[in-house]
Every structure is written in structure tokens, then in C-alpha cells.
């Protein structure tokens, strides 16, 4: 049971999920005594939909993924993934070390046929529609045209399942909208994605269009995706700081700030990044949801919800079907 | 005289600059009749610090850079750059087609020794300090370690000159701060930059640290830089829209919105992207400032100011010296 706060956040989030989803059961992996003490604290230590499993190793945030994979065979992360592999659980939610989660997932669950490595995909809020799914967010630093095409297929199926949208618009991130812009690799990826019948390919888009809401899936390499996502976090923090400072300028602005508080609260609720917690590791033969290390109770609950929805939709199964159909294009 | 608005924006901006800088003279290139009519409109058609030069070709925003370079030898862009080459002007400011400006600048002005292509660099507001310089913003889609090192040298000298900072902190954008993160190319670039005595290399940074203000120069490839910059524009637009919508919810929120107007104005002024208009094409044997196509009068004035400051500092000359000192590392 990882993340920055461990069971102190996970247990209340699980409690919330048990109430909201009467058919869902939990297996909790980690230090047994600590988990039990938190269960007791929250007064549901004898819940019939909770089972606690003791782990002895501990994957830390600084652990090298390969070392974690080789030496920490009894970590909560590893045991939870093995439960998914063995059909004991439908999905694994973890707030632990992303690199280790990737490496161990890949080893324990294996990849879908034709996929080399998992991609990280997550929803991001937009102007018109509710959200867009952006991938990859950092699992694959450099990507050739085949991998970008795999991302398009996986993103497309994910949106179809989760948003009940039969024909999502899928776009490729580039430095210009014109067909001749960007690297040759990107142009080849555009051709490959465009040739797939199952995808409504919308062409190249630029960075400012990520938040426009015109597209439902935007595909890019993990280096760019990761930096765009993290820069957005940094910019949001910068702008929040600036607006706060503007309201704290003098007694009058502080007064208007008090009056405007409900508005600021509405605004914060609408753009709350916690709603979007729960990135998915796609391409695996099982469902793995990565919760933010610093997630609070609400954000952790959102990550659990994501796992429940994906389990109901049997997402890996559906992605697998589409990959098989696209095999000819991908092998080309 | 390009950009979305042509002389209707440029002429008032020039008027403002003539007042603010009594020692600066302007050469205006474009359609003579149109320029003169705007000069007349703004009542300074007989100014002794303005000369108008007629151009006959027109580089449009959609023009292919190579076509513009080969076929439009009498465009305002080309003539202005030739004036810089021939020592008739200290700097060229353009709001025209970026690709064409890059290609024509490179052909007319030539690159500094050891530099293959210009990089686009611009200041971005940050939390602690006033700004950070990010490069490349889209001139070089893919960059090897040599090119990233050239960016570090150019960014470092630019900040030293413009911000009067003798030892700027220079960082490399990556998907993690640890030395083993990212591609091998990035790790080699880190080594090369770290070996240069003239640079205070601060290591790898992640996207969220762009806006933190702890660094003065952040180096990345043009694909990532362009997407981070444009995504930031898109996110700012999204957040502005959401805050406006929150204030327009009902009569009470509209009322508090009226009271909070001065605060919102302060906030908007502080984060005004127009202040940061005027990206520089570094690596050339002359000063070329790219103004945003949609720049207004104030933003265009800021781009002109940027050109004036860089001219006073003889920026290309200083960058050239540092490149010569670093030649051994770059040739390695």
C-alpha cells in the first residue's frame, strides 16, 4: 500500500468506495498491522468485502524499477499484480513508484499481443467537452510510428468503452497542423493511423488544441506527453498563486476576495485535478491504475472508480480485439 | 510588414517606440502606399527617424519557407533582413511566417560558426523570479546532444546580457530529475553542458519546474518546447474561460465579479502574455525578433524593445565568443 500517505489515505478512500459500490470487494496488500489499525480507526475492520494480505518487502519511491522487480518479490505491488494475473482480482490500483509499477506489471501480467511496453493514459479537462485522453504520459520516452499507432488504437478503444462514444476523434500532436510538419516518423504514423478503419483520425494538432475539447484522444510520445502534463500542473500552480496574491493586495481586495469566495470555490471544483486522478497503464493483459503519489482521499476514490469502470468494460479484452484487427497495418 | 494586422498595429507600436527611445530610428518595409496612409493617419508621416522602403512580393502565413526563400526575393521580410546584413539596420522585427523568417534569416544573415540552424528562445513568466528563458520553441524538431549544448551556450549568454545575471542556472528538460532518466542523447547532452566552465549547469528538471523560477534557462528540443508553450497558451485560455463562467453563474456572482474587477485586472496584468512577446532567433549573425502573428500594439512594442535591448548588448557578438571557447567540447 504505497503512495506518499499509505493507508491513512487509502483506507478512507476504500471505505467511500465500499459504500458507493455495493458489489465491489477489496484486497488490501501491505503491512498487516498498519492496515488493520487504520481499518479499526475507521471502524470497518470486520467488513466482509475486505481481505488483508501481508507483504514483507517495500518498494520505495526511489527504487530502481529493475531492482524492485528482481529483489522485492514480496512487495504489496507485486502481490496485488499477481492477484490480478491469477484471476483473484479484476484490477490493481497503486499509488507507488511508477517505474516499478510499469516494470512489475509488464513482467507479471504480460503485454497484449503486439505491444512492447505499457503506455500511460489519462483524462485531462477541456473547454468544450468534458475531457480528452492524452497518451503516452511518460512510459515511452521515444516512440516510432508503430508505437504511436498502437497508442492511437488503445486510446480509441478506451474512450469508446469509458465515454460511450462510438466514434472518438483521434489526433496526433505535432508542431503544426499541416501534413508536411514535424518529423518523418510522425508523418508515417499519421499514414498508418489514417489507414485504420476503426479510427476516426482527425489529423495533426498543436499543443493549444489539447485543452480545446475538439478531440477525444491525442497521441504523442512519452517525453512530450509527460512534459506537457507536468508543465500544465506547474502553470496551474503559478496562476493560482498569482490570483491569490492579487486578492491579498490590500484590505479592499481581501474584502472582495471574501465575497468572491463561493465563485473561487466553484472554479476550483470545476478545474479540480483530483477528479482526473487515476492514470491507466494500457497495453497489459490486466487492468492497472496508477494513482498520484500525493493523492488525497477523494483523488484515491476517483482512481478506484476508474478501476471499477474499466473492469466492468473488460477493457484489455476489447483493446486486444482491435489490435488483432490492426495487426496487418502494424506489421507493415 | 506582416502579421495578422499589418501596419494597423505596427505603425502605432512604432510611434510608441519612437517616443520611448529617442535614439532609435526605423526602416519600414512593405506596401509603400499602405504604410504611408497609416503614417498619415497617426500624424507622423514626416518623421526624421522613419524611412519607408517598398516591397513588391508578399510572404503569406501559408507559404512554404523554401518557396518563400526562392521566389519572394522582394518581400518586406527579405529586404529587412538584407538591411541587417548590410549594416543598414541593427535588428529586424517581424510578425510574419515563422518558417519563412527562419529560412530567409539563415540564408541572408548566415549562422554563427558552429551553429547549423537558428533556435527560437523566449521568456516565460515564473513564480519566484521574473522569468525563465525556454529554448528551442519549434525551430528544431529533433536535436542531438551537440545541438542541445549549443542551445545551452546561447541561452546562457542571452540571459547574462539581457538580465544582467553573471551566472544563470541552466537546466535540461527531462522526464525525471535523476541522472539515469530520459534518453541516452539527453544524458550525453548533460555531460557536455556540465563540462563547460562558462555554464552553471543545474541538472535535469521536469515540466512543472519550468514555471517555478528556480532556473534562468531551460533547454529542450523544438518539438517539446513548442508543445509545452502552446499547451500553456491553451491551458491559460481554458482557465480564464472557467473563471469567467464561475463569475457569470447568477446575479450574486456577477455582483461579486464587478467588485472583484480591479483584482482580476491586476491578475491579468501580471500574467499578461503580451509582455513576453518577441521571441528571438538565436544563432544568427544578426538580431532577428519574431513577434506573434496576432500581436496587438503593446505586444508589438514589447518585441521592438527586445530588438533594441539585444542591439545595445551586441548579443550575436557575445554568443559567438562563447561558441568559439566551447568549440573543443562541441567538436568532441
TrEMBL record, chains A, B:
Q: Which Gene3D superfamilies does this one have? A: Isopropylmalate Dehydrogenase
Q: What is its main location?
A: cytoplasm
Pathway linked to the protein? Lipid metabolism; phospholipid metabolism
GO MF terms, alphabetically ordered = phosphate:acyl-[acyl carrier protein] acyltransferase activity
Chemical reaction(s) catalysed: a fatty acyl-[ACP] + phosphate = an acyl phosphate + holo-[ACP]
InterPro entries per UniProt: FA_synthesis (IPR003664), Phospholipid_synth_PlsX-like (IPR012281)
- UniProt KW Cell inner membrane keyword: no
Give the GO terms filed under biological process for this record: fatty acid biosynthetic process; phospholipid biosynthetic process
As for family, the record states: Belongs to the PlsX family.
What is the protein named? Phosphate acyltransferase
Gene that encodes it: plsX
Amino acid at each position: 500500500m504505497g503512495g506518499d500517505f499509505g493507508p491513512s489515505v487509502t483506507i478512507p478512500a476504500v471505505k467511500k468506495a465500499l459504500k458507493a459500490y455495493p458489489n465491489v470487494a477489496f484486497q488490501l496488500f501491505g503491512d498487516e498491522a498498519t492496515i488493520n489499525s487504520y481499518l479499526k480507526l475507521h471502524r470497518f475492520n470486520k467488513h466482509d468485502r475486505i481481505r488483508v494480505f501481508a507483504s514483507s518487502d517495500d518498494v520505495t519511491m526511489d527504487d530502481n524499477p529493475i531492482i524492485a522487480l528482481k529483489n522485492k518479490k514480496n512487495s504489496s505491488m507485486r502481490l496485488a499484480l499477481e492477484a490480478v494475473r491469477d484471476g483473484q482480482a479484476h484490477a490493481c490500483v497503486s499509488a507507488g513508484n511508477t517505474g516499478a509499477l510499469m516494470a512489475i506489471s509488464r513482467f507479471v501480467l504480460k503485454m497484449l499481443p503486439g505491444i512492447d511496453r505499457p503506455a500511460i493514459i489519462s483524462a485531462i479537462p477541456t473547454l468544450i467537452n468534458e475531457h480528452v485522453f492524452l497518451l503516452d504520459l511518460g512510459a515511452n520516452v521515444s516512440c516510432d510510428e508503430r508505437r504511436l499507432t498502437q497508442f492511437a488504437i488503445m486510446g480509441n478503444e478506451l474512450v469508446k468503452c469509458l465515454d460511450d462514444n462510438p466514434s472518438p476523434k483521434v489526433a496526433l500532436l505535432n508542431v503544426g497542423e499541416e501534413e508536411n510538419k514535424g518529423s518523418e516518423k510522425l508523418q508515417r504514423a499519421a499514414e498508418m493511423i489514417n489507414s485504420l478503419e476503426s479510427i476516426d483520425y482527425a489529423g495533426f494538432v498543436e499543443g493549444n488544441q489539447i485543452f480545446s475539447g475538439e478531440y477525444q484522444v491525442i497521441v504523442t510520445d512519452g517525453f512530450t506527453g509527460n512534459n506537457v502534463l507536468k508543465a500544465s500542473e506547474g502553470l496551474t500552480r503559478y496562476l493560482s498563486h498569482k490570483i491569490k496574491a492579487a486578492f491579498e493586495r490590500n484590505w479592499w481586495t481581501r474584502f472582495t476576495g471574501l465575497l468572491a469566495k463561493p465563485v473561487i470555490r466553484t472554479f476550483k471544483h470545476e478545474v479540480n485535478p483530483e477528479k482526473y486522478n487515476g492514470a491507466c497503464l494500457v497495453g497489459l493483459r490486466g487492468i492497472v491504475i496508477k494513482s498520484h503519489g500525493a493523492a488525497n482521499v477523494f483523488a484515491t476514490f476517483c482512481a478506484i472508480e476508474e478501476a471499477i469502470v474499466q473492469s466492468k468494460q473488460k477493457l484489455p479484452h476489447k483493446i486486444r480485439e482491435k489490435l488483432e484487427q490492426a495487426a496487418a497495418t502494424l506489421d507493415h
